[in-house]
Amino acid sequence: MRLSIAIPEAQVVEAPALLRLVRMAPTCDVEAGEQGVLYIALFEDFPKSAELVVRLIEKAWDLRDVLIRLDGRSVRSRINFYVALLCYRRSLDAPDPVAHCLRQSAKVRPDGGCPDRSCLSNCQFICSRCAGVSRGRHTGPVPMQLMELARNAEVDWCPNLRIEKSGA
């Protein structure tokens, strides 16, 4: 999976620590575009480089016009992406990352389970929204609806994400 973080030159030049982090990326590039010169950190192996991406986002947190792209799609919510990335990073310390995700989602659901059906996803960022999934003749397949929820929650990239294929 390919992740890029583009930061306007004027903002990078004012922050030497940020420039060092951009240069630590597996690939670093400078491009001229419509909005001016951008410094771009490229991560072809995302999310394997989650630690550096977290540090880079934190260092650029207060900056405007930071563009994050994931496999060609713009990340709409930097905060949602960041929170999901922190969750994924914590899961790497767990003996069983999927079990870690299930424990996190159980914290979101006060009763520890989905109402009236088995859980369709192990992700806390989806299960809080899962109540909005429609089941009927005029709705899309549930797994497609859940993937759309995951995309909106900026967690569709997570290797731990599990979405059940069943559930009509």
Summary, kept brief:
By secondary structure, the protein is α+β, with helices and mostly antiparallel strands.
Care to describe what's here?
There is one protein chain. The longest helix is centred in the middle third of the chain and has 14 residues, at 78-91. This protein is elongated. The chain starts with a strand and ends in a 16-residue tail after the last helix. The protein is α+β, with helices and mostly antiparallel strands and 168 residues long. It has a five-stranded antiparallel sheet. The protein is built from seven helices and five strands; from the N terminus they run E-H-H-E-E-H-E-E-H-H-H-H. A hairpin with a 2-residue loop joins strand 2 and strand 3. It has helices at 9-13, 16-24, 50-59, 78-91, 97-108, 124-127, 142-152, and strands at 3-8, 27-33, 36-43, 67-70, 73-74.
SSE topology:
Layout: E1 3-8, H1 9-13, H2 16-24, E2 27-33, E3 36-43, H3 50-59, E4 67-70, E5 73-74, H4 78-91, H5 97-108, H6 124-127, H7 142-152
Antiparallel strand pairs: 1-3, 1-4, 2-3, 4-5
What is the end-to-end distance? 30 Å
Major β-sheet strand ordering: 2-3-1-4-5
Q: How are helices and strands ordered from N to C?
A: EHHEEHEEHHHH
pLDDT averaged residue by residue = 84
Enumerate how many helices there are, as a single number: 7
Shape: elongated
**Helix content bin:** 25-40%
CA-atom Rg in angstroms: 18 Å
Range of strand content: 15-25%
Low-confidence stretches: none
- Structural class of the helices, strands and pairings? alpha+beta
Q: Largest sheet, described in full? A: 5 strands, antiparallel
| Record field, number of beta strands | 5
